[in-house]
Specification:
Elements: H1 2-8, H2 13-20, E1 25-27, E2 36-38, E3 49-52, E4 55-58, H3 63-73, H4 80-87, H5 92-100, E5 105-109, E6 112-116, H6 120-134, H7 151-162, H8 166-180, H9 184-192, H10 196-207, H11 225-233
Antiparallel strand pairs: 1-2, 3-4, 5-6
């Protein structure tokens, strides 16, 4: 604000806001809203966030609105610490206020509070996904924003994917997207050359357990003919 006043040659806040109202602008959700940027300047990422010199802005506006939107859009909810890693600011007070206003929910999972959607269906899916996340090695643990897939793991994913049939590929891609969390569909789509909608379908099928289990063995499965022959000729076997 002091810088804007100096540029505009005024000592009055109202004059600055009147000038700003002529443009599409944003107030930072960090630094207690002390900074401003034009929409045309900001380049928001997949999560709707943008920063300049450690000042953070959100497509959703305030910290409270941003926390609510990101929790709602998450695959497995967030703990306060996880969300702080994403937003780069303290969020505990903001989360407390948003929960108090009934805009998101909070549940205890494995001894810590996880913030989730207030929509029953979405919350159920988030809780199911959280169980998947908690079962993964630390390399796939929730981190700051989108998680990064190491190059060695990318190669392993592509190799394993190439061995599967069409149905298995969709489900496997959905599982990897699920483990990556928010933005995972697009990252896996880019890696495997799949349509994002196909991956989203596989992910939903897994979460809803909407998977028809086929026979494990395909045509020709079971004991080999040689093994059957040996069993027939073994001592004590009946002969016709």
């Amino acid at each position: 604000m002091p810088e804007l006043k100096e540029v505009l040659g005024t000592a009055v806040d109202v004059t600055v806001f009147r000038k700003l109202s002529e443009f599409c602008y944003r107030t930072s959700y960090s630094h207690r809203g002390r900074y401003y940027t034009l929409d045309a300047t900001a380049h928001f990422d997949e999560m709707g966030l943008w920063s300049f010199r450690e000042v953070w802005f959100s497509r959703f506006g305030t910290l409270l609105s941003t926390a609510e939107a990101i929790v709602e859009a998450s695959e497995a909810g967030y703990s306060a610490d996880e969300l702080e890693n994403v937003l780069h600011v303290g969020v505990k007070d903001a989360l407390r206020k948003v929960v108090g206003r009934g805009r998101i929910c909070r549940e205890k999972v494995l001894g810590r509070y996880i913030y989730l959607s207030c929509q029953p269906g979405a919350r159920k899916e988030q809780l199911a996904a959280r169980q998947v996340y908690e079962a993964q090695p630390s390399i796939l643990g929730l981190g700051g924003g989108l998680r990064v897939i190491p190059d060695e793991l990318k190669a392993a994913i592509v190799l394993f994917y190439s061995l599967l049939d069409e149905k298995q590929r969709r489900l496997y891609a959905g599982l990897e997207a699920l483990k990556l969390g928010h933005g995972g569909d697009q990252k896996v789509a880019d890696l495997l050359g799949l349509d994002v909608k196909t991956i989203a379908k596989g992910r939903r099928q897994l979460l809803q357990r909407d998977v028809e289990v086929d026979r494990v063995r395909g045509t020709g499965g079971g004991r080999s003919q040689l093994e059957k022959k040996r069993r027939r000729s073994s001592p004590g076997s009946k002969r016709s």
